Amino acid sequence: MATAVFLHAHPDDxxxxxxxxxxxxxxxxHRVVLVVATHGEEGEPVPGVLADGEPLGDxxxxxxxxxxxxxxxxRVEFLGYRDSGMDGDPAxxxxxxxxxxxxxxxxxxxxxxxxxxxxxxxVVYDSHGGYGHPDHIQAHRVGTRWAQRAGVGRLRWxxxxxxxxxxxxxxxFAAGELDDMAAASLEERRERAExxxxxxxxxxxxxxxxxxxxxxxKRAAIAAHASQIAADSFFLAMPLERFASVFGTEWFVxxxxxxxGEDFRTDxxxx
Length: 271
Fold this sequence. Notes:
Blueprint: E1 3-8, H1 13-27, E2 31-38, H2 56-71, E3 75-81, H3 103-113, E4 121-125, H4 134-150, E5 154-159, H5 162-175, H6 180-193, E6 207-210, H7 215-223, H8 234-237, H9 240-247, E7 249-253
Parallel strand pairs: 1-2, 1-4, 2-3, 4-5
Antiparallel strand pairs: 5-7, 6-7
Helix pairs in contact: 1-2, 1-7, 2-7, 3-4, 5-6
C-alpha cells in the first residue's frame, strides 16, 4: 500500500482537478491524504445557500469533508492559511493569506503536518496553478519544495489539457444541450481557455488517468461543494454521458520525465 498526498488550495479543487484519481487510488487500497491550504473564505457563494450569518469558510470546510469521504480519502487536513482570493483581489495582500506566506515556512508547516506519514506520491499544481490563481501557484511552490526536501519518490503536477478543453467546449456548444446559464458559464470558460496561462499543451503532459470507472463519485464529490457549484452550473447541468466525456480523464505532469511527444502514461501516478 502506498500513501498519496494531494495538496490543494481550496475546498472543491480536489474534486474538480483530481477527484477521480483520488478515488481510483483509494479503491486500489492506497492511503489518500488530502491537505487543503485554505478554507476558501474568499469564494463566491451560490445565492441562497448560506444561512444568515454562516461563515463561508465553515461551510466549505464541511463540504470538503463530505467530498473527501465520497472519494475515499483517509485523512483531511488544513494548512491553516487564509484564502488569497483571485489574482488582483485586495485579499491578495492580507498578511495571513497563503499568497503572502513564506514558501520555506509553509513547506515546513506541511512537513510537520505530515511527519507521521510515509509519503510515496505527492500531487500539487503545475507552475502557473492551472489558470493563474495565486493560491494555486503558491501550492505548487510550497508542495514542490516540501516534496523535494522530504525526498518523496514521485511528484506529479495536476494540470488541465488545454487542447482537450478547447475541443470539448466547442463540442458542447455544437451539441446544443445547454440552457442560458450553463452556456454563459461555458462561454466564460472558453475565454479563459484561450489564454496561454490556462492549462498545459497536450504535448507537455505525461499522464492521462482514465477516471470513467469512478465518474459518478467524482460528480457527487463536485456536487458536495454546493456553496460554490450550483446544480445548474456547467459542471452539473450536462448529462452524465457528456460529463464523463469532458471530465473522464485527469491530467498530470511528471516534472522529472518530460514527454516530448510520446504517448501518455495511463497508470494512476504510481508507476
